[in-house]
Amino acid sequence: MNFEFSEELLFIRDQARNFLVQESTPEVVHSVLDTDAPYQMELWQKIVELGWTATTIPEAYGGLDLGYLELCVIAEELGRSNAWYGAWALPCDAPDLPLAAATARVSATDAYYQITKENIQAHGGMGFTWEFDCQLFGQAGIIQDEFLSPEQAHRRGDAQYPGGTGAGATPGTAGG
Predict the structure, then answer these.
(1) How far is residue 26 from each of residues 19, 91, 165, measured CA to CA in Å?
(2) Cα separations (Å) of 31 from 27, 48, 53, 94, 105?
(3) Model-wide pTM > 0.85
(4) φ and ψ at 123, to 5 degrees?
(5) Is residue 147 part of a domain?
(6) Does residue 96 belong to any structural domain of this protein?
(7) What's the pLDDT tens digit per position in 95-154?
(8) Which terminus of the chain is less hemmed in, N or C, by CB atoms within 10 Å?
(9) Contact 151, 161 (CB under 8 A)
C-alpha cells in the first residue's frame, strides 16, 4: 500500500501553508490580540473563499466534497502556523508570549488528536491492533486531548489558555 500524499493532497497542503505564511503573519495576529474581536474578518473571509470551512460538505450543498484526510491536512497546517507564531514570540520576548505558547499548544494538540483519529480510520481494522503504531498514536492523542485540549484547559481554568478563568484572568473579559 502506498501511504504517500497524492498530488492533490500535496497541492492542498502547499496551498494552506503558503496562504498561512502570507496572510496569518505575527502582525495580523497582534492586530486581533489588540482588539476585542475573536478573529480578523478579512482573514476569515479569505479562508471561507478558499473553501476550508466547507471541505467535507457535499458539492450539492456548496461544499468542496473532499474527505477527512484533506481536512486533516488543512488542520495540520493551521496547527503548524500557530506553532510558528509561538516560536516567533519566544526569541522576540513578545508581551503575548504566554498567549502565543498556549495557542500553539492548543492548536497543535487539537490537530494531532484529529489526525490520529483519522489515521486509525484510514487503516481500518489494522488501525486498532497493537501491530501498527496507529493505536499508539491514537492513545497518545486521546491522552493529550484529555489533558491539553481547549475544553479541558477551560474547565481547569488555565490562565494561559485564552478563555481560561484561572489566576491571571480578569473577570468580565474574554479570560474570565
Answers:
(1) 14, 13, 25
(2) 6, 20, 23, 14, 21
(3) no
(4) -90, 0
(5) yes
(6) yes
(7) 878 878 877 777 777 777 777 777 777 777 666 666 667 766 777 777 766 666 655 554
(8) N
(9) no
Residue-wise DSSP of 101-136: HHHHHHHHHHHHHHHHHHHHHHTGGGGGSTTSHHHH
Which grid coordinates are listed for 34? 489588540
CATH of the domain at 108: 1.10.540
Helices (H), ranges, 37-96: 41-50, 68-92
Contact yes or no for 76/111 (Cβ under 8 A) = yes
* Coil, helix or strand at residue 58: coil
Q: Is residue 1 part of a domain?
A: no
Domain that holds residue 70: 7-156
Query: Is residue 175 assigned to a domain?
Result: no
